[in-house]
Amino acid sequence: MTRATPTTVRPTDLAALRAAVLDSAGPLAVAGAGTAAAWAGDLQHVDTVVDVSGLSGIVVHNPGDMTVAVKAGTPLRDLAAELAGHGQQVSFDAARVARGATVGGLVATADAGPGALVHGTLRDLVIGMTIVLADGTVARTGGHVIKNVSGYDLAKLVHGSYGTLAIVAEVVLRLHPVPAASATVVLDCPLDEAVAHAARVLARPLEPAALEWCSAGSGPATSDGRLLARIEGTAAALPARVERLVDTLGPGAAEADAGEWEAHASTVRGRPGQAVLRIGARPSRIGGIVGALPGADGPGAGVTVGLGTGVATVALPADADAVESAHLAVHAAGGTSVLRDRPAGFGGPAWGPPPSAIAMLRSVKRAFDPDGRLGPGRFAPWPLENSR
Amino acid sequence: MALDDAARAALARAVGVENVVDDPVGRRAYECDGLTGYRVVPDLVVLPRDAAAVAAAVRACAEHRVPFVARGAGTGLSGGALPVADGVVISLSRLKRVLDVDPVDRRAVVEPGVTNLEITAAAAAHGLYYAPDPSSQQVCTIGGNVAENSGGAHCLKYGFTSNHVLAMEVVLPDGSVVTLGGDSAEQAGPDLRGVFLGSEGTLGIATSITVRLLRVPETVRTLLADFPSVAAAGDVVSDIVAAGIVPAAVEMMDTLAIEAAEEAVHAGYTVGVPAALVVELDGPAEECDVQFEQVKAICDRHGCTRLHIAGSGEERAAIWRGRKAAFAAVGRISPDYFVQDGVVPRTRLTEVLARIADMGEQAGLRVANVFHAGDGNLHPLVLYNAAAGETERAERLSGSIAELCVELGGALSGEHGIGTDKACSMPRMFGEEDLATMGRVRAAFDPDGICNPGKVLPTPRLCGERPGKYRPHPLEESGLIDRL
């Protein structure tokens, strides 16, 4: 039996978004720029796709308060361009921002980039949110101020929910000044040496804004690559800080241009035909975990490792068994993993074993979406919806 | 309905009979937290010695449908640890172990009864510290910080408790034990850790907490600057922000707060000046030096009448002693006072202070102001004399100030929490659907409503059968947000 093609609706304001939810009955998926449409579990059949790209633009930017409210379908790179005119930024640099990823999608997928070392992920930068639940409820949480402990922080629940709990309509973000100056230092070395270098860098008062290792893309993926460190600050102080960093890293370390980060982002995104795994673990373990993954040392694999954050991205040949054993290996080391892009019909599991709080996740899912309308399949193979 | 014998017996079995406080005098010690105006003597107090006993106590409560309230040091200022009549207080004061300090991954695992400052003390040997620093950090516990998502003077740059807790072992209201969060910021699925942090003890009890530790900054530069007006001091803060500087802390005190603090701790503040700013920068030496010169120039530009730069660790400590003592010090210039906690967008600081002054004048009461100027978090201290019958007037004034913050686009609470104190004010900030959605979260965690009931969310029983008429949020009136 062939199922009907889903109906796509494209609301352009909050009222229309709510109407789109209320006017449909069956399973529903949210679509933004589509940069993570294939991440996490395969979306099962839906009757309706709510395209939020029409919910776009700044609602209000308060430069003096360093906050901005944007509609969820706003591409972050467009927002960044607007804010740059005020010398401000959202301190967030996930790899797919360059592809036009929307603010709402970046929150829902809990994405992050190298800058998370200092600024955290979007969960740390979102100060308010408006969401629409599966029954049309419109709820606001947080506000327009940085410091706020008034009521439950519903935005945290949305972070990493992959469209299964609510549809994000609007996001309020805290902003930071664009650093007056920034420099990148690189050192060619294998991953295990980079881990040791990073420990020394972090033990000294160098305060890097990002500290990563990235495979070169040619040789074996965990031995052929380079350490990348970014320093941000004032123009006057930067040269001395860069010098200290270069000294700490030792022979071979040198200043490079910011284009290094674009290569890093490209490795994070992976190549067509690969299965991209996102992994988080203790920083001291992440190098070992990644190094031991089946296929990670193959010449076609792509690896980035956050040496201070413990967050890695590994693009492996698309082999379902390898991905399954990777999930289990990460879990055994206390980490978490999720499958991102992979070829259509790949079939390998998107998630490792469920967290200990799976029963609580199920309760929250039931409380927010009792009919299981939103994002069916995104958390498969976890038992998120099957207990109704 | 009082606690029945079966429930008492179950709780005694759960924690051990020697860890139960049953006598009226002993129980009375738990009747309130730092918000002393609200008092309820609990039916029973249990002091479990470890996480397993906490879980057993919660299981006993769940089985017998007994409401329970978790309690740390009892320093909370919103009545979040106020006991429930006919309920149990579960004190975490005996879970005081630092379980692990890991200098390589820069994190510590601690039990909830460890004080905020003890974490830093345990990490100090490795050149590390725990960043969030509520003024009560010598006594307040990390468990309470988790419940309240506590901030502190340095959270402008470094963030709040929520930004520094990686994982927690949590006893849920049904007595089951789960881990929320994990070894890195990369979590599998929705951020349950994030919603638990700051939930004011209504979603469960954390029995072990993994916190991030930061490297002690290479350099710290601190100055104390006097200004001819609150507005001038406010302009300095604006210019610092506009210059792209993110200070570690920017604190402001008005003339009454300065007077009180100086009388109490003789920290070197200038009595009689209208406003003083404490500005602290930290970070790599080169960076700090450049920005500190910029800050000094900004101060001069706005008519700074005295600039005192801390020349030593002791002088820096003295400046902070004055600031942190300000709350308690107000007791020296007034027999009684209420501590308020509200937030406004930082750019509205001058406006809100002027309005608070007017409101104080109208009420015939003095208001001292101490606040985290960098993030717009105000702590107006409403001074009054209970013996002269001023309590009700002062309470009304204090409540109106919090609501004024909401009216100006801010928040009811920046760091003290909603607790008992402001639950009935929540409809001023949130609409029915917002609160109902928060209620869904609560019901998902605690379907029987036994975990710190009556806090955070307004209930008809608490706030009167007829909730007040809905008033649109000012952002709604100005067209910035919709409510459908």
List the helices and strands and how they pair.
The complex is a heterodimer of chains A (388) and B (484).
Chain A: E1 7-9, H1 14-22, E2 28-31, E3 48-51, E4 58-62, E5 67-71, H2 76-84, E6 88-89, H3 103-108, H4 116-119, H5 122-125, E7 126-132, E8 138-142, H6 154-158, E9 167-174, E10 176-177, E11 181-188, H7 191-203, E12 210-215, E13 225-233, H8 238-249, E14 254-256, H9 259-269, E15 274-280, H10 283-292, E16 302-306, E17 311-317, H11 320-332, E18 336-339, H12 358-368
Parallel strand pairs in A: 1-3, 2-3
Antiparallel strand pairs in A: 4-5, 5-9, 6-10, 7-8, 7-9, 11-13, 11-14, 12-13, 12-16, 15-17, 15-18, 16-17
Chain B: H1 5-15, E1 20-21, H2 24-28, E2 44-46, H3 51-64, E3 68-71, E4 88-91, E5 98-102, E6 107-110, H4 116-123, E7 128-129, H5 142-148, H6 155-158, E8 165-171, E9 177-181, H7 192-196, E10 205-212, E11 214-215, E12 219-227, H8 230-242, E13 249-254, H9 255-265, E14 275-283, H10 285-301, E15 306-309, H11 313-324, H12 326-329, E16 336-339, E17 342-343, H13 349-363, E18 366-372, E19 377-384, H14 391-407, H15 426-429, H16 432-445, H17 460-463, H18 474-477
Parallel strand pairs in B: 2-4, 3-4
Antiparallel strand pairs in B: 1-2, 5-6, 6-10, 7-11, 8-9, 8-10, 12-14, 12-15, 13-14, 13-18, 16-19, 17-19, 18-19
Helix pairs in contact in B: 1-3, 8-10, 9-11, 13-14
Description:
The complex is a heterodimer of chains A (about 400) and B (about 475). Chain A is an alpha+beta fold. Chain A has helices spanning about 15-20, 75-85, 105-110, 115-120, 120-125, 155-160, 190-205, 240-250, 260-270, 285-290, 320-330, 360-370; strands spanning about 5-10, 30, 50, 60, 65-70, 90, 125-130, 140, 165-175, 175, 180-190, 210-215, 225-235, 255, 275-280, 300-305, 310-315, 335-340. Chain A has two domains: about 55-175, Uridine Diphospho-n-acetylenolpyruvylglucosamine Reductase, domain 3; about 180-340, 3-Layer(aba) Sandwich (Vanillyl-alcohol Oxidase, Chain A, domain 3), CATH 3.40.462.10. In chain A, the strands form four sheets. In chain A, strands 14-11-13-12-16-17-15-18 form an eight-stranded antiparallel β-sheet, with helices on both faces. A five-stranded antiparallel β-sheet of chain A has the order 4-5-9-7-8. A three-stranded parallel β-sheet of chain A has the order 1-3-2, covered by helices on one side. The longest helix of chain A is centred in the middle third of the chain and has 13 residues, at about 190-205. Chain B is an alpha+beta fold and about 475 residues long. In chain B, helix 1 runs antiparallel to helix 3, helix 8 (about 230-240) packs antiparallel against helix 10 and helix 13 (about 350-365) packs antiparallel against helix 14 (about 390-405). The longest helix of chain B is centred in the middle third of the chain and has 17 residues, at about 285-300. Residues about 465-470 of chain B have low confidence and may be disordered. At the A-B interface, helix 1, strand 4, strand 8, helix 6 and strand 10 of A face strand 9, helix 7, helix 8, helix 10 and helix 16 of B. Chain B: This is D-lactate dehydrogenase (Cytochrome). Chain B: GO terms for molecular function: D-lactate dehydrogenase (cytochrome) activity; FAD binding. Chain B: InterPro entries: FAD-bd_oxidored_4_C, FAD-bd_PCMH, FAD-bd_PCMH-like_sf, FAD-bd_PCMH_sub2, FAD-linked_Oxase-like_C, FAD-linked_OxidoTrans_Type4, Oxid_FAD_bind_N, Vanillyl_alc_oxidase_C-sub2.
